[in-house]
Specification:
Chain lengths: 419, 292
């Protein structure tokens, strides 16, 4: 009798499970975090929690290596094989929206009211994507270096001016203690160049494209401010302040930690690992070259593919993922800046007084998103090449003029990219 | 005629071995660096790159990078996929390309030379130029599976194998080799009443060992190093090959030790395959004058 009752209970439970599974509509999701164990564990946990929290949708995740993720998505879009939910790098989002890979994100925008600006992906007046975190860049330094060189510690309220920054590099160079005074990170090619270095240009008063129209780069990438930036940029390498484009990636990773570089321009993602090896590490705000201190913004965000037949289900998952506990889990796990102040308060690194709290403030105060245009994808590559050429000694004005021509030609070829 | 001076001969031999040793060192050092680095922690690995220590098993050595590589990525899945895709492609390619070459070398049919010229012309077309049209094609192709007709080949082994079975270089290698074989053998077999299939399978192919080895090695390298094609046609991890898998190790802060451990693991099958066939490979290269 007892055995029969147990079997009946088991059968009932199985029926229930089968019933729930059958009722759930499957949503496919692609994510860029393959190979990152911590990131994969957290995103899988969110997916599991979501699937268990309701009976309408079941998200199935497929992870891709970050370096090849964009190529995989573009190929899948061509083959008509996109998933329901995509994650997309912030500056690339307008291109994917314009190309028809994404559809507007149907979520209640009051949910993201207090999210950092860089985590919200707007294109053409509509929200297409939203991120659980942002990234920020700071000037890494040792407190002991600042003291030995007799330098003022810059603050968010009073960052170094361009002159103070160069005086700091001069002092480091003159001390003879360092192989290079400044490591901007020339070994990190690709998106690092526009993300990390275009804020210097913007602080000089230039930009990659004219944001008032998004129809040209003329005047902003080759105007007086841009030329001043280019000459400063070239001087960093010509006068031996910084390692050039031939920098070994190994030196990029270890040069500052080993004490061979006095200052390093680096992101918050490297902060925890560096803190473990450098006792008196401090994160300094970007210098102000005349038009305010700037750093880049916008990291990976979630969106709904244009071909999804269940945008409401995809949006339900994205809204579910935006909970503070997940923002905090990602931040604690991979060191990125949580999107909200309330989530920051839950983290070990970004809570008030936390070792990386300064990055949250930097992101809030200094961040400027990269140009919000589908043409950014091409403009970024042109900008990267121009900066590398200038670093290698090319004529500044000619190089910037050529870059403007290339960017403008691309904009014209694409009929203004829908602006 | 001048006689050979033993002293000069010794000197010449010494110079020759010295030059060969230098060349061997140049080719071996990257492999030695990769293997040695795979046993070192990241910081030591990076610090050693500036000195000869990079090539020596010194410092804090362990299998930690290998353990972490297996935790980071399904290494054996990638290796298994690459071996399946590479093995099947090589086998099918040797069969079909040799058949095609047999036809070009021994059969007389209208338009033969034109077709061969067209096939050889494909050698100058870079794969990148046809990748997207090919992607669009395979994403719509039918396949008869266990559940009836399926549409689209994406996320399968066949999409990584079938487009690569026939290629101009392999056909060319076989054609060149077959043309150098004594045609009397084929004529004698015909007189004896052998069919073309019998001539192919019992007369020509048993003599084709060197070119089979050469074609197999070249095809193996092409297939084992596939990156772009699997990247765009395979979205599921369970079908990814080793080169796409390598991307798993390049994170925001690259774990170089794990990269070296992974590279060491995926290089082993290539070395084994090459060493197994190298004698025939060298013989074939020497006889055909073809350089891979």
């Amino acid at each position: 009798m007892r055995r029969k009752a147990t079997l009946a209970t088991l059968a009932g439970a199985l029926t229930l499970v089968a019933g729930t599974a059958a009722a759930q509509t499957e949503l496919t999701m692609w994510y860029h975090g393959a190979g990152n164990e911590v990131e994969s564990r957290i995103i899988n946990q969110i997916v599991d929690d979501f699937n268990a929290s309701q009976s309408d949708w079941k998200v199935v995740i497929e992870s891709f290596p970050q370096l090849s993720y964009n190529d995989s998505v573009v190929a899948a879009a061509l083959a008509g094989n996109l998933p329901d939910i995509l994650d997309v790098d912030g500056p690339v989002m307008p291109n994917w929206a314009w190309s028809g890979y994404l559809q507007p994100l149907p979520i209640d925008e009051s949910v993201i009211a207090d999210f950092l600006p860089g985590t919200k992906g707007y294109w053409d007046g509509e929200l297409y994507s939203v991120g659980l975190w942002d990234a920020a860049v700071a000037l890494y330094a040792r407190r002991s270096t600042l003291e030995e060189l007799g330098l003022r510690t810059p603050t968010l309220e009073e960052p170094w001016t361009g002159e103070e920054f160069m005086a700091a590099l001069d002092a480091a160079k003159a001390s003879g203690k360092y192989e290079y005074a400044f490591d901007p990170g020339m070994a990190w090619t690709g998106e690092w160049y526009p993300y990390a270095f275009s804020p210097f240009l913007q602080s000089f008063g230039g930009d990659i494209v004219d944001r008032s129209t998004y129809q040209t780069a003329d005047g902003v990438l080759n105007g007086d401010a841009a030329i001043a930036f280019g000459e400063w940029w070239q001087s960093l390498f010509a006068e031996g302040y910084a390692p050039g484009t031939s920098q070994d990636p190994a030196d990029r990773d270890a040069g500052f930690i080993d004490g061979r570089y006095a200052f390093q321009w680096n992101g918050n993602w490297a902060a925890v690992a560096t803190l473990e090896k450098v006792d008196d590490l401090v994160f300094l705000p970007a210098p102000d070259f005349g038009n305010g201190p700037k750093i880049g913004a916008a990291s990976w965000q979630f969106g709904v593919s244009a071909t999804s037949e269940h945008p409401e289900g995809a949006a339900a998952f994205i809204e579910f993922a935006l909970q503070d506990k997940y923002l905090a889990a990602f931040s604690d796990g991979i060191g990125l800046i949580p999107a909200t102040p309330s989530a920051a308060a839950m983290t070990k690194n970004y809570k008030e007084g936390g070792p990386l709290a300064v990055f949250f403030d930097l992101s809030k105060e200094q961040a400027l998103v990269r140009p919000v245009t589908p043409g950014y994808v091409v403009a970024a590559k042109v900008f990267e090449k121009a900066l590398a050429d200038i670093a290698n000694g090319a004529d500044v004005a000619d190089t910037l003029d050529a870059a403007v021509d290339e960017i403008d030609a691309d904009i014209q070829r694409n009929n203004g990219y829908g602006h | 005629m001048a006689s050979i001076n033993p002293a000069n001969h010794g000197l010449r031999l010494a110079v020759r071995y010295a030059v060969l040793s230098i060349i061997a060192v140049v080719f071996l050092f990257p492999l030695v660096f990769m293997i040695m680095s795979s046993f070192k922690p990241d910081l030591q690995l990076l610090q050693d790159t500036g000195s000869l220590r990079a090539f020596l098993p010194v410092g804090d050595l362990s299998f930690e990078n290998y353990r972490e590589a297996f935790e980071r990525a399904p290494v054996w899945t990638f290796v298994k996929n690459s071996i399946i895709v590479t093995g099947l492609t090589v086998a099918l390619s040797l069969f079909f390309c040799s058949l095609a070459a047999f036809s070009f070398a021994f059969l007389n049919w209208h338009g033969r030379d034109t077709v061969l010229a067209v096939i050889l012309a494909t050698l100058i077309v870079p794969f990148e130029t046809i990748a997207i049209p090919l992607l669009l094609l395979v994403s719509k192709l039918p396949w008869l599976g266990m559940d009836g007709i399926e549409w689209g080949w994406l996320n399968t082994y066949r999409v990584q194998i079938i487009p690569w079975v026939a290629d101009g270089l392999t056909i060319f290698l076989f054609v060149q080799y077959f043309k150098d074989l004594p045609h009397e053998l084929v004529e004698a077999a015909r007189v004896e009443g052998a069919s073309w299939w019998q001539i192919y399978s019992r007369v020509v192919m048993p003599l084709a060992g060197p070119v089979l080895a050469t074609a197999a090695i070249l095809k193996f390298l092409v297939m084992y190093n596939q990156y772009l094609w699997p990247l765009i046609v395979v979205q599921e991890e369970s079908y990814r090959p080793v080169m796409v898998g390598l991307q798993y190790f390049f994170q925001l802060n690259t774990a170089w030790g794990e990269v070296m451990a992974y590279l060491t693991l995926i290089t082993v099958p290539v070395l084994i395959f090459y060493l197994a066939l190298q004698r025939a490979f060298i013989a074939s290269i020497a006889s055909t004058g073809v350089k891979g």
